[in-house]
Amino acid sequence: MRVMFVTSPVLSHIFPTVPLAHALLAAGHEVRYAVGSELHAVSQAGMHAADITPGLDYTPLWMAEGEEDPMYAEDVGVEFLAELFARVSGAEVSGVLDLARDFAPDLIVHSAAQGAAALVAAALRLPCVEVPLGPADSDPRLARLLRSGMRREYERHRVTGEPAATARINTLPPSLQHLLPGRSPGSFTGPDEWSMAYVPYNGGGELPDWLSRPSRPRLAVTLGSMGAQWGGITVLKSLFANAGSVDAEFVLTLGGGDVSLLGELPGNVRVVEWMPLAPLLKTCAGVIHHAGSGTLLTAMRLGVPQCVLPHGSYQMTNAAVLTGAGTGFIADPDTLGEAECERLLTDTSLRSAGARIGEEIRSLATPADLVPRMVALAA
What we know:
This protein is α/β, with parallel strands linked by helices. It folds into 2 domains: 2-197 and 365-378, Glycogen Phosphorylase B (Rossmann fold), CATH 3.40.50.2000; 209-362, Rossmann fold. Helix content is 38%, strand content 15%. The protein has 17 helices and 13 strands. Helix 6 (93-103) packs across helix 7. The chain is globular and about 65 Å long. The N and C termini lie close together (9 Å). The model is unreliable at 185-189 (pLDDT under 50).
């Protein structure tokens, strides 16, 4: 079977699809990625990718003239996500269509906000599988709203039908389903939904010697692959002004942020530019982060208590799921300090809820378990 993966041009949208792609490869199937940026993430994962938008500057697509930066937009819902990603996906339709005609896939797997993939699946009457990156784009209304936002592309390519079949992967455990947006009882009937355990993939890398030997409790601090750049690393100023009074080691992953903006850091803060998140969190008593989807779900799988600093965009939805699960809490960046760190280190209710949710996630079907279902869908 030939499977084409199509993702939005962002690392956080590519990474969640990699375990599924690896499972398909291990089962003997052929995989090809169609992406418009961050192709290195695919090649570093040992797979092949084609650039569907060579030379395209995505900046005006992410933030049209006069619009608010999407990372700062507050109180956004699925309508906002659909409008934003319909604009980005619209620029990718021709490239995805050309690659699909050349590669001739039996199945398309795509990130949930990738509207070009669904259009191409409909145009070529192919089955497709949607892979959300987290709670925010798990909203079952997103696919319909994306199609509405891309109506000109559908008209231009004369696409009026639907994909041959559609399935959606859901990586949140059953006990948390009621916390997802658009999931009130009886509110949605749609494509087949497959439950799958979230498997962290954050890229490969050489692990440092200090990682496995913390001399005291360790707290990870991260703003993800983009938050330190877009949201600004300065949201961590209050935290690190108070970190010296906490009996813990802090590991700050910069992700492209400028550490000098934080001023002088106390001696119990270790700074790294980047490292794979899952191996780090396995050694941590807690994590402080931006409520990003990958960080949220990685920490949930590992049962690590979380303190989140949501600012806007999808982060509010993720934070609501976290607090509803009882595995973490929301903090104010302006006052973040010793009290929140001590709560991460000592609150047994966070740890017990985290252990329960982590066990539930790990009990779900693996990516390898879903390969036969994908083969059947493509048959």
